[in-house]
Amino acid sequence: MKYQQVVGMDIAKDSVQASRFDGTTFFDFSFPNQEKSFLKEVQKSIPKSDPSHTLFVMEATGAYHLKLATTLYKKGYSVAVVNPFIIKKYAEMLLKRAKTDRKDARLIAQFGFYQEVTLFAPKESMAEEITQVLKGLDQLKKERTNLKNYREAFTCHNEINPVVRDIYQKQLEEIEKAIKTLEAEAKRLVSQYAPKEYQLLLSIKGIGKCSATALLGLLQKMDRFSRGKEVASFLGLAPQISQSGKDKGKAWLSKKGNGYLRRLLYLAALSASRSNAQCRELYQRLLAKGKPKKVALIAVANKLLRQAFAVLKSGCPYDPHYLKLKSNLEVVLT
Q1: Burial of 9 from C-beta contacts in 10 A (0-12 / 13-18 / 19+)
Q2: 311 with 247, same domain?
Q3: How deeply is 78 buried, as exposed, middle or buried, from its count of CB atoms within 10 A (0-12, 13-18, 19+)?
Q4: 0.90 cut: is pTM over it?
Q5: Over 80: is that where the pLDDT of 245 sits?
Q6: Transposase IS116/IS110/IS902 C-terminal domain: which residues (predicted)?
Q7: Residue 263 contacts by C-beta under 8 Å, 6 or more apart in sequence?
Q8: Can you tell me the distance from the alpha carbon of 17 to that of 32, in angstroms, rounded to the nearest whole number?
Q9: Residue 123 carries which DSSP code?
Q10: Which of the chain's termini has less CB crowding within 10 Å, N or C?
Q11: 3-class SS at 5?
């Protein structure tokens, strides 16, 4: 869809620099990044028109862009949230040298006017809550690992200061308690948000409670994807292949998706390579071809993700014999 005007936004913690572009001229304006005032400031700075004629484009900036994007979406405006890496490459393509907030806003507006973008839609509120709980769990588990490593380092000495020992022990106990609390909260949320989908995911050998919860929280019910390849690409589990230059013939992961979910699926692949019949067959076949174990496990993680997509789309539990039954039926019919 071609919009009459595009508003590019360079968002910081406390302020927003914006630029409206109609294909010919830029109109620059700025306002505080405060939920109570930014909608009024935005509407004051753009001509009165049908919201469907205006597109707002902004970079993904952690949590700073989220309130603005959600508010504009709820008011009926079209919003696009773009990966900053894409904007950076677009600037390099145009040979841009200067980098200021105003020029960045103009560049984002120009990108949105001439390039095709994917429109933003906020997560369902409960899926967002699950995501918040998962981020908290991930942070706490990292802190637990760090504390254990620090405590282990002190054991190299003959004597450990009792105050230091007690502090580390107390912190570890508090973190363990917090982890159990968040795990219980994640279980409560997912049982309310998508109980059927949760059980479908658990029917896949290798996907456990944590992985199933993360898939539903971060990817919701995968409704916006039409193929399993799209999910793998979105999450950064699809191989990126070079057919030219010094890297010709090489392949690597794009790693452009959510790193936390990729780590969980990699860990799930360790289990699936033994317990999931299709994943085990894939893993052993790749090892027989001489592929490194890590490469084979990443392929298994990709397959697990596609299996998850398949059970959510079909609404049927995972059946390890499905492909064999399907092929046998085709032979009979032909």
Answers
A1: buried
A2: yes
A3: buried
A4: no
A5: no
A6: 199-284
A7: none
A8: 9
A9: P
A10: C
A11: strand
In this structure, which amino acid lies at residue 133? V
Amino acid at the residue 165: R
Q: What is the CATH number of the domain that holds 88?
A: 3.30.420.40
Angle at 176 between CA 172 and CA 181, to 5 degrees: 150
- Quote the CA–CA distance of 127 and 213 in Å, as a whole number: 10
Mean pLDDT for the stretch of residues 247-261: 63
Q: What is the pLDDT of residues 109-155, one digit of tens each?
A: 999 999 988 888 888 889 889 989 999 999 999 999 999 888 887 77
Map residue 225 onto helix, strand or coil: coil
CA distances (Å), origin 222, targets 245, 250, 324: 36, 30, 26
Instruction: Answer with the one of 60, 84, 114 that is the final residue of a domain.
Output: 114
- In angstroms, rounded to a whole number, what is the distance separating the alpha carbons of residues 42 and 72? 9
* 241 in any annotated domain: yes
Domain that includes residue 288, residue range: 218-325
Burial (Cβ within 10 Å: 0-12, 13-18, ≥19) of residue 162: exposed
Determine if residue 34 is left, alpha or beta; phi over 0 gives left, psi from -120 to 50 gives alpha, anything else beta: beta
